[in-house]
Design brief:
This protein is of the alpha+beta class. The protein is about 20% helix and about 30% strand.
Length: about 250
């Protein structure tokens, strides 16, 4: 038995998320496992570095599966892509080292949220970016972002979270890219809905609806109802998972 590590990308528009829920919805895990079921010797159980919600995309999601198939490793992407729908692609495949686990071995995960400022999204980007009227106060946004890195209790930014809520955020940055604002986060792990709630709250700061210091108050003793709205899913991307300490991949 060998373990295969895949790096995949997907357009989350027509998926109800990565994780199978057992109710017949279309999920990324579901279509991957359906493809693997057609390869003799492969065990159709896929484990991912992270989960994404309905409508959320991935640029480089790491997954693994176990198999006894005889497909040469260099041909695995070609074989799987021939069986997958066009909104999921295998970018690379490799033999996983002993003990590798896509989720448990990950040391950090990174996300990006795209905001188009002052203009509607293009036809091709309508399901891939959030459009907001401008202007945005980028100085206030930067001041708010400065409160997020470090180990904190992020309970105020979580939706329906049943696990412990302390996490370490390694980076929280904003940058302008071709008329878009990109909000980028990297951390040891993220709570359910955390990135989208952080984005919704930060955009309230950028639009002058709350002060930058409110982020610090939310981290100290805040509750979910005191934070901002959950940002829509289409602007969010799982960017990468790292298997060495931050900032190395």
């Amino acid at each position: 038995m060998k373990r295969i590590r895949l790096t995949i990308e997907y357009d989350g528009t027509h998926f109800t998320g990565f994780q199978m829920q057992g109710r017949g919805e279309r999920t990324v895990q579901g279509v991957l496992q359906a493809a693997l079921a057609q390869i003799p010797g492969a065990l159709p159980k896929v484990v991912a570095a992270g989960r994404t919600d309905a409508g959320v995309h991935a640029l480089e999601m790491v997954v693994h599966y176990d198999t006894e198939d005889t497909v040469p490793i260099e041909r695995v992407p070609l074989a799987l892509n021939a069986l997958l729908p066009p909104d999921v692609r295998v970018l690379s495949a490799s033999l996983a080292p002993p003990g590798f686990h896509a989720r448990k071995s990950a040391r950090w995960r990174a996300y990006r949220y795209r905001v188009r400022i002052g203009q509607p999204p293009t036809a091709l980007d309508r399901n891939r970016v959030l459009a907001l009227p401008g202007p945005l106060d980028l100085a206030a946004l930067e001041a708010a972002l400065a409160h997020l890195p470090g180990e904190h209790d992020f309970r105020a930014f979580a939706n329906r979270e049943e696990r412990g809520t302390v996490r370490t955020l390694y980076a929280a940055k904003a940058r302008l890219e071709g008329g878009e604002l990109w909000l980028e986060f990297a951390g040891s792990g993220f709570l359910r809905g955390q990135v989208r709630v952080m984005v919704g709250t930060l955009l309230e700061v950028a639009r002058g609806r709350r002060r930058p210091l409110s982020i610090a108050h939310l981290l100290e003793r805040g509750r979910r109802e005191e934070a901002g709205p959950t940002a829509p899913p289409q602007g969010l991307y799982f960017v990468a998972a790292g298997y060495r300490p931050w900032p190395m991949r």
